[in-house]
């Protein structure tokens, strides 16, 4: 029996709040604030609104391809702390994801219990593993908002509201160009399939596809919505010269982001887990393919998987990479730096979660069984061990000592201090609120910035090597040399040593050294 408008609205609201609750509970109970990427994104957002904050920091003065996120969230940092901004940002971004997810679930014929179950299954899969390290629910960053728009766009596609789909996917591209572009390309494959099967599918959907001239309107909405994000991302793709661009690609793919970008360095467990998800998807598709919406998502998933597998094949070659790369190697690096695996990661988990939830509801279980199963799976997803539960690989007393050390730096160093965290470097600007000479996590995204970032890491490594070359102890002269070479005023260490001069502060295994000015080095 079909539901009335009022009842459908009630179910839509219930599905949204159920998914939103599950996402928020998972985020706050599993991932401490700040999550692994929150210092990166929220720090840039704060600096975008307040350029004087941590002035002189390499990362904060680099290109801003995620400007939409900074405009959307950054204003909060002017009145709230970074932690408070993260709380508000998580709640808001997960509301958008929950809204898009619940719309997608309803478009596939899932009731409230089934939609919630699919969301929790997705969380469970995310907690267990991934192929390229992609995740969605945890901290707040630009891709979380973007995927919420993507899900809403696919829901509109299933309902044949193509203009709305174009608008949502365009907004996703502005919020996160890489996520939006890959989702758009995969959706175009799905759209081509829809046109090809238009006659056969028209009786199963709410409305037939429009004539060809009208079909071009969605692309106009996409371009309008995506234009700001594309404009903000272009500076990160430009380079003053080809050599700098080639070197930056090499640094990003072979070193800094190999765990996300180079499939031949992914852990074996990741490949096996991804293959398992594909098998489960193909098995569940034997039953879900009778639903038109699932057929469309199957095509989009197939396209995403094909992108990843094609990139894997094309990128085959000897490892480690060598520099300078061959002409073909340079093309391989250029292709891999655009994250061709991240959509396959999300889609494999999404389609399995939705498909299994659909199979569950086909057995017509009692509502209480669906909600009970969802609750148990949510608890399990939160409990599963994972690196996201200890951002920066810091936990317990070490985390407390690290935070106390950085807060001491904030309270006892001048505002123009320049820091270098030698070992652990998680969320330095978050707690210390001082500029950094270089931070491994905070790598710029423009070519010139990437090369400068790498040069600074090499400069630090050379200083360490030279300091230990003579007497295996870092003495006062070495500290002077570091300041002369880099401009760093304060060195934070966890394991580096031994260091001869006494630290200005010590807590647990962490120490802070104030580097003598070269002008005063004669007094040492």
Give a brief outline of the structure.
This protein is mainly alpha-helical and 524 residues long. It has helices spanning 5-30, 38-49, 67-73, 82-107, 112-128, 142-158, 162-175, 177-196, 198-201, 212-215, 217-237, 242-256, 258-261, 268-288, 292-314, 327-336, 342-362, 367-383, 396-412, 428-432, 447-469, 476-486, and strands spanning 418-421, 435-436, 490-493, 505-507, 510-514.
Strand line-up of the largest beta sheet: 2-1-3-5-4
What string gives the helices and strands in order? HHHHHHHHHHHHHHHHHHHEHEHHEEE
How many strand segments?
5
Strand content: under 5%
- Main beta sheet, described? 5 strands, mixed
Summarize the amount of helix as a percent range: 55-70%
Helix and strand composition category: mainly alpha
Task: State the assembly state of the protein chains.
Answer: single chain
Number of domain modules: 2
Rounded to an integer in angstroms, the radius of gyration calculated over CA atoms is: 25 Å
Mean pLDDT equals 93
Provide key terms for this protein.
membrane; DUF6798; about 525 residues; transmembrane helix; mainly alpha; globular; 22 helices; DUF6798 domain-containing protein; five-stranded mixed β-sheet; about 5% strand; transmembrane; 2 domains
Structure report:
Residues 401-458 form the DUF6798 domain. Keywords: Membrane, Transmembrane, Transmembrane helix. Pfam families: DUF6798. This protein has helices at residues 5-30, 38-49, 67-73, 82-107, 112-128, 142-158, 162-175, 177-196, 198-201, 212-215, 217-237, 242-256, 258-261, 268-288, 292-314, 327-336, 342-362, 367-383, 396-412, 428-432, 447-469, 476-486, and strands at 418-421, 435-436, 490-493, 505-507, 510-514. Helix 1 (5-30) packs across helix 4 and helix 5 (112-128) packs parallel to helix 18 (367-383). The chain has a 5-stranded mixed sheet, with helices on one face. Mean pLDDT is 93; it is low at 201-206. It is globular. The protein folds into 2 domains: 5-389, no CATH class; 393-523, no CATH class. The protein is built from 22 helices and 5 strands. It is 64% helix and 3% strand. A hairpin with a 2-residue loop joins strand 4 and strand 5 (510-514). The N and C termini lie far apart (87 Å). With 524 residues, it is mainly alpha-helical.
């Amino acid at each position: 029996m079909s539901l009335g408008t009022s009842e459908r609205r009630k179910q839509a609201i219930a599905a949204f709040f159920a998914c939103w609750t599950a996402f928020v509970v998972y985020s706050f109970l599993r991932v401490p604030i700040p999550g692994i990427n929150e210092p990166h994104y929220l720090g840039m957002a704060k600096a975008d609104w307040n350029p004087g904050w941590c002035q002189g920091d390499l990362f904060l003065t680099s290109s801003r391809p995620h400007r939409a996120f900074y405009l959307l969230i950054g204003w909060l940092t002017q009145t709230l702390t970074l932690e408070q901004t993260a709380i508000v940002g998580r709640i808001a971004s997960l509301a958008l994801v929950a809204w898009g997810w619940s719309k997608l679930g309803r478009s596939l014929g899932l009731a409230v219990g089934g939609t919630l179950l699919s969301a929790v299954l997705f969380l469970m899969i995310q907690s267990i593993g991934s192929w390229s390290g992609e995740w969605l629910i945890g901290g707040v960053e630009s891709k979380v908002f973007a995927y919420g728009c993507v899900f809403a766009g696919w829901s509109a596609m299933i309902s044949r509201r193509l203009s709305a789909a174009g608008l949502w996917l365009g907004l996703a591209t502005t919020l996160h160009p890489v996520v939006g572009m890959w989702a758009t390309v995969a959706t175009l494959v799905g759209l081509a399939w829809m046109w090809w099967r238009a006659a056969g599918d028209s009786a199963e959907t709410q409305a037939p596809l429009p004539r060809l001239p009208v079909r071009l309107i969605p692309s106009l909405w996409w371009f309008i919505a995506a234009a700001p994000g594309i404009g903000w991302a272009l500076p990160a793709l430009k380079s003053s010269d080809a050599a700098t661009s080639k070197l930056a690609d090499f640094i990003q793919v072979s070193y800094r982001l190999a765990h996300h970008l180079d499939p031949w360095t992914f852990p074996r467990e990741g490949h096996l887990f991804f293959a398992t998800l594909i098998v489960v998807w193909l098995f569940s598709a034997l039953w879900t393919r009778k639903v038109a919406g699932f057929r469309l998502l199957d095509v989009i998933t197939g396209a995403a998987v094909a992108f990843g597998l094609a990139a894997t094949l094309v990128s085959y070659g000897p490892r480690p990479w060598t520099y300078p790369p061959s002409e073909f190697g340079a093309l391989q690096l250029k292709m891999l730096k655009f994250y061709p695996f991240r959509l396959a990661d999300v889609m494999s988990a999404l389609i399995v979660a939705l498909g299994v939830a659909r199979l569950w509801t086909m057995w017509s279980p009692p509502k209480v069984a669906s909600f009970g199963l969802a609750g148990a799976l949510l608890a399990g997803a939160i409990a599963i061990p994972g690196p996201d539960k200890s951002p920066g690989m810091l936990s317990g007393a070490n985390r407390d000592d690290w935070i106390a050390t950085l807060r001491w730096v904030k309270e006892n160093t001048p505002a123009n201090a320049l820091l270098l965290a030698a070992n652990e470097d998680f969320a330095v600007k978050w707690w210390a609120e001082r500029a950094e000479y270089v931070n491994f996590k905070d790598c710029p995204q423009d070519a010139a910035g990437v090369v400068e970032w790498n040069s600074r890491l090499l400069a630090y490594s050379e200083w360490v090597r030279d300091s230990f070359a003579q007497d295996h102890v870092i003495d006062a002269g070495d500290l002077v040399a570091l300041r002369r070479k880099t401009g760093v005023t304060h060195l934070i260490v966890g394991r580096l040593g031994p260091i001869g001069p006494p630290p200005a502060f010590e807590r647990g295994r962490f120490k802070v050294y104030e580097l003598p000015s070269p002008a005063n080095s004669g007094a040492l």
